[in-house]
Design a protein that fits this description.
alpha+beta; Alpha-Beta Plaits; four-stranded antiparallel β-sheet; two-stranded antiparallel sheet; 3 helices; 6 strands; elongated
């Protein structure tokens, strides 16, 4: 089992969800987060003064998957989120030692679904 965490642009969320559903990945958690990467925020001019906003609005997806869904999930995220420009985001794949479904007590891959 793996936990896939993706940080994407907010305007790409619907496209990523569409691609995930096509790949039969339906169980996702979505959070609004703040952060920046190489672009180091944005610079705007307000009343003639240059201001830099260090943190940009991003979307964080968390998806627990069984081994056979790792590649389809990653491919779907990339297909839905990629613009080819800086700031498209990152995908992290972590080992998931245990998963327990609260309602039934199922464990492991069965609990993921």
């Amino acid at each position: 089992m793996k936990l896939i965490i993706a940080i994407i642009q907010p305007h790409k969320l619907e496209e990523v969800k569409k691609e995930l559903y096509k790949a039969d990945v339906n169980l996702i958690t979505v959070s609004e987060v703040l952060g920046h990467g190489k672009q180091k925020g944005v610079t705007e001019v307000y009343r003639g003064v240059k201001e830099t906003g260090n943190l940009l609005r991003k979307i964080r997806l968390e998806i627990a998957v069984n081994e056979n869904f790792i590649k389809p999930t990653v491919d779907a995220i990339i297909k839905g989120a990629r613009t080819g420009k800086i700031g498209d985001g990152k995908i992290f794949i972590l080992d998931l030692p245990e998963c327990i479904r609260i309602r039934t007590g199922e464990k492991g891959g069965d609990a993921i679904g």
